[in-house]
Design a protein that fits this description.
- This protein is of the alpha+beta class and 91 residues long.
- The chain folds into 2 domains: 36 residues, no CATH class; 54 residues.
- It has a two-stranded antiparallel ribbon with strand order 1-2. Strands 3-4 form a two-stranded antiparallel sheet.
- Bound molecules: zinc ion.
Length: 91
């Protein structure tokens, strides 16, 4: 029998790529390796993805802030920026 490869797509370092492990389990016509077997992963993923979702949300929130700040601050003079910083400090 031809060796099946795991068909799971893996997200890492901000890219999707196919898992290259040899598949061990068939689930609903798709093949998965031991790591990506949906039945096995289901419980683990629930816990892990909650943590991961939080990290991702924080990261993307930070990235959005930076890009928004960049856009806002580009048009400001240094004096204006100093004024803005003062307002923040006095809070
Ligand atoms: Zn896999």
């Amino acid at each position: 029998m031809e060796k099946q490869k795991c068909q799971e797509q893996v997200y890492n370092n901000w890219h999707w790529f196919g898992c290259c492990n040899n598949a061990k389990y068939e689930r609903k016509g798709r093949w998965y390796c031991g790591v990506h077997d949906p039945d096995r992963r289901h419980k683990q993923v629930t816990i892990r993805s909650a943590k991961w979702d939080k990290e991702w949300a924080e990261k993307s929130d930070r990235n959005e802030r930076i890009s928004l700040m960049d856009r806002i601050l580009k048009d400001k003079t240094v004096d204006e920026l100093r004024e803005m910083a003062k307002v923040k400090e006095s809070k």
